[in-house]
Amino acid sequence: MRTLRQAVAAMLVAAVLLVLVLTAIAGARQHPQDVPWTKLDLGDPVGMFTARKLTALTSDLPQCRALLGRAGVRYALLPPVQEGRCGYADGVTFRSGGARRAVYRPTLGTSCAVAASLALWEWQTVQPEARTLLGSPVVGIDHLGSYNCRRIGSGEGGNWSEHATADAVDIAGFVLADGRRISVLEDWRGTGPEATFLHRVRNGACRLFATTLSPDYNAAHANHFHLDQATRGGMGWTVCR
What we know:
The chain has 241 residues and is α+β, with helices and mostly antiparallel strands. It folds into 2 domains: 1-30; 40-240, no CATH class. The protein is 36% helix and 20% strand. It has helices at 2-30, 50-56, 61-70, 112-134, 184-187, 193-206, and strands at residues 75-77, 81-83, 86-88, 91-94, 103-105, 109-111, 138-145, 168-176, 181-183, 211-213, 225-228, 239-240. Strands 5, 7, 8, 9, 10, 11 and 12 form a 7-stranded mixed β-sheet that branches. Helix 2 (50-56) runs antiparallel to helix 4 (112-134) and helix 4 (112-134) runs antiparallel to helix 6. The N and C termini lie far apart (60 Å). 34% of the residues are buried. InterPro entries: Extensin-like_C. Pfam families: Extensin-like_C (PF06904).
């Protein structure tokens, strides 16, 4: 009798596991962005594992380039840079035309992983929120730079910044097609649609970047959003402030 009960119990466990596996497979097919083992596609909606997959591109330039190409993003490779502990070998700069609309001011050179994240951010958050809240698309994005051979904060003892490998960018504002400029410094604390727009695009960045820091973080970020793709040992956790 005990053997029969054990066999029935084992069959029930196997049936439950089979259902779970089939459910996972079905979920992966319908919502690949919510499953950790599916491949990233910049055409998919943003999901639970999108940020982790974007961060993984920091060590896979061929895959990053393939994703940009399939998504219709026009770009050019940048020459490698080596400056002591700093530098990069995966730098790209956006070219005009293609699937993107916003132009970075001044011309932006950053890591391929950050470029892919910025493209997805524009498509999934920046442009939809601009049209909904401000009634005009974004045609320009002002930034304070990407690559900078420096440590975090001041002094010589701090950790190296993600800027030191071009895996970060600081966004200062947005220019609309109707000529208006939305500034992080001037509009973040407001109560109108401009402030709402800035908060929503910050929140959207939190779903795509390993680190998103805004004026809510500290005074050093009063005039920009810091966005980066820090790997953090492959653990995949994100920071959003």
